[in-house]
Design goal:
The complex is a heterodimer of chains A (about 120) and B (about 110). In chain A, about 0% of the residues lie in helices and about 45% in strands. By secondary structure, chain A is mostly beta strands. In chain A, strands 2, 4, 5, 6, 9, 10 and 11 form a 7-stranded mixed sheet that branches. Chain A has a 4-stranded antiparallel sheet with strand order 1-3-8-7, with no helix packed on it. The radius of gyration of chain A is 14 Å and the shape is globular. Chain B has no helices and 11 strands. Chain B has strands at about 5, 10-15, 20-25, 30-40, 45-50, 55-60, 60-65, 70-75, 85-90, 100-105, 105-110. In chain B, β6 and β7 form a beta hairpin. In chain B, about 40% of the residues are buried. The chains are: A mainly beta (about 120), B mainly beta (about 110).
Chain lengths: ~120, ~110
């Protein structure tokens, strides 16, 4: 079974530029998460999708970050414009479904390391 | 707000020794507690998890214990090997609220041969 795919793996941009990240979850997984992991810290949830609907985006800085999950499969996360403090690894994770005991088993992709200069 | 505290931040052991990492959570409604291993340049990988109706769970050299009254859970690795070297994260969540994970700050484990 293929894992969670993310691209690009690395991205370097200047502040105030825009950037987009792509995630392809494990086939059949209804729930998709985007996490931000700042160096030396644990991942922090940015947004959670159930199929193509948003479940939780309370931690997403909506003035600059946006995310969508078209057709309930792939997802993109965009930052516009980027700030220096956005430098981090952006992790995508997926899990089979919500509301049931097995649902919290989250499978992570390799992440995209973003450097904002 | 919800918070998970993890200690120690770094841990160095000799090969063959045991390693223990401890976490405390603030949300008393949390009922799912996974542990993740993250190697350099990779995403976190689930190594073991425990649910609130269980006090202890073991998988070969890895075990996790949960004390719901104290809101405390721990990871135990026995007979450590150099390939156990990585950053370990604990997390807590309520699986009836969509599975949002609250992570600890991480423990960098170094196993010296």
């Amino acid at each position: 079974e293929a894992g969670v795919a993310q691209s690009p793996r690395y991205k370097i941009i200047e502040k105030r530029q825009s950037v987009a990240f792509w995630c392809n979850p494990i086939s059949g997984h209804a729930t998709l998460y985007w996490y931000q992991q700042i160096l030396g810290q644990g991942p922090k949830l940015l947004i959670q999708f159930q199929n193509n609907g948003v479940v939780d985006d309370s931690q997403l800085p909506k003035d600059r970050f946006s995310a969508e999950r078209l057709k309930g499969v792939d997802s993109t996360l965009k930052i516009q414009p980027a700030k220096l403090e956005d430098s981090a690894v952006y992790l995508c994770a997926s899990s089979p479904q919500t509301g049931r005991e097995k649902s919290n088993e989250q499978f992570f992709g390799p992440g995209t390391r973003l450097t904002v200069l | 707000g919800e918070n998970v505290e993890q200690h120690p931040s770094t841990l160095s052991v000799q090969e063959g020794d045991s390693a223990v990492i401890k976490c405390t959570y603030s949300d008393s409604a949390s009922n799912y507690f996974p542990w993740y291993k993250q190697e350099l340049g990779k995403g976190p990988q689930l190594i073991i998890d425990i649910r609130s109706n269980v006090g202890e769970k073991k998988d070969q050299r890895i075990a996790v214990t949960l004390n719901k009254t104290a809101k405390h859970f721990s990871l135990h690795i026995t007979e450590t090997q150099p390939e156990d070297s990585a950053v370990y994260f604990c997390a807590a969540s309520r699986y009836n609220q969509g599975g949002k994970l609250i992570f600890g700050q991480g423990t960098e484990l170094s196993v010296k041969p």
